[in-house]
Amino acid sequence: MRYLKFWYVLLLSCLVFPVAAQESAASFPSKSITVVAPYAPGGATDTFARLIADGFRRSFGGTAIVENRPGASGMIGADVAARAPGDGYTVVIGAASLHSILPLLYEKMGKTQENLIPISQIGVNPSYVVVPASSPVNTIEELIDYVKKNPGKFPYGSAGTGTSQHVFVELFKQRAGLDMYHVPYKGSGQMVTDLMAGRVLMVIEQGPAVMAHINAGKLKALAVTTPERSKALPNVPTLGEKVLPGFEASTWFAVYAPKGVPQDIVAKLNKAVNDTLAHEETRERLLRAGTDPKGSTPEELGELEKRDAKKWAEVIKAGNIKVDG
Fold first, then answer.
1. Does residue 58 share a domain with residue 91?
2. Cβ 262 vs Cβ 323: under 8 Å
3. Which distant-in-sequence residues (6+ apart) come within 8 Å of 129 by Cβ?
4. Are 183 and 267 part of one and the same domain?
5. For residues 234 and 224, is the Cβ–Cβ distance under 8 A?
6. Which of 21, 39, 235, 310 could pair covalently with 45 via S-S, beta carbons 3.0-4.6 A apart?
7. Which of 66, 97, 95, 92 minimizes the C-alpha distance to 80?
8. What is the bridge-based pairing of β-strands 292-293 and 203-206?
């Protein structure tokens, strides 16, 4: 009799558990969602994380918190998210460099990336070819001519080896046939400070890090790296229209989740992100920060990631870019 009771209970559990799992998916979310920002507070990614958390609260009527986990060019935060349960209650804000460039340079990030799945793109940041206000060059053509007349003499700055600022300049160098040497910094802050002081010749940097200095007359924007001109600086020409036809290098931001999240919950998260991007106040805040709001399906984000990885793998190989460790 005892054995019959055991099998009876086991049979009931098999019938009940699938129903419970289905109810859990249907009622998602039933607790707070954590949005991991893999960079320090105050930056662009932190801003996006807070906007997405606000959107989750509007869409789901529950709570959503932002957890800043900076370090290692975003790889620490990405790893924290990748190790979280695949239940939809943890997402991470990613960037093009984190998901399409760093996995090519760091084996650990490659493994982390394998444990993350795409949810939706958030937006695109144009980057600008920027020089100090004191620079003798005033146009992108003058910059290229200036460097060609002084091969190997000038440094350019980046926010670190393998960052978007690094590989964007490498692509620019390769396409324009320039010889400059790389000075990596630990983030954009000191890099921009040294640029304004004239310690590096130029950088290619996103709008949020340099826009205030451009508007204040401390930096000069010579070109934008996107195919179309920037809404924030419409008088600045694109690299493609002036000197390098077809040039494109932009930084996209997106939402990822740990591997294993059920598809119906992925669909709910995707809808919430895209509804957030359609919210008028959110769109205005992104545009003011120099970001073009742009959502996507998970499949579209996955394809974007793969296309970018292929493109930057070629640039990294041609530039012989390597990292220590």
1. yes
2. no
3. 140, 143, 172, 202, 204, 221, 222, 223, 224, 225, 239
4. no
5. no
6. 39
7. 92
8. unpaired
| Distance separating alpha carbons of residues 21 and 25, to the nearest angstrom | 6
In Å, how far are 89, 176, 224, 242 from 247, measured between CA atoms?
39, 10, 10, 10
User: What total number of domains does the chain contain?
Assistant: 2
Q: What letter represents residue 131's amino acid?
A: V
Residue 13 in tokens: 């559990």
The amino acid at 101: I
The letter for the amino acid at 162 is: G
Residues ≥6 apart with Cβ < 8 Å to 162: 73, 97, 101, 102, 104, 105, 106, 321, 323
CA angle 224–276–289, rounded 5-degree value: 30
Q: How far apart are CA 164 and CA 308, in angstroms?
A: 11
Task: Please list the pLDDT of the chain residue by residue as tens digits (325 residues).
Answer: 554 454 444 445 544 444 434 435 678 999 999 999 998 777 778 889 999 999 999 999 989 999 999 888 889 999 999 999 999 999 999 999 899 999 998 989 999 999 999 999 999 988 999 999 999 999 999 999 999 999 999 999 998 888 889 999 999 999 999 999 999 987 788 999 999 999 999 999 988 788 889 999 999 999 999 998 988 889 999 999 989 999 999 889 999 999 999 999 999 999 999 999 999 999 988 887 778 899 999 999 999 999 999 999 999 999 888 875 5
Whether 23 maps to a domain, the answer reads no
**Phi-psi category of residue 169: left, alpha or beta, with phi > 0 → left and psi -120 to 50 → alpha:** alpha
The residues, ordered by sequence, that sit 6+ positions from 33 with a Cβ below 8 Å of its Cβ are: 53, 56, 60, 62, 63, 64, 65, 88, 89, 90, 91
Other CB atoms within 10 Å distance of the CB of residue 291? 26
Residue ending a domain, choose from 207, 242, 277: 242
CATH of the domain at 37: 3.40.190.150
Token representation of residue 42: 């105050």
Q: Which domain holds residue 170?
A: 127-242
Question: Looking at residue 116, what is its pLDDT?
Answer: 97
In a domain, residue 57? The reply is yes
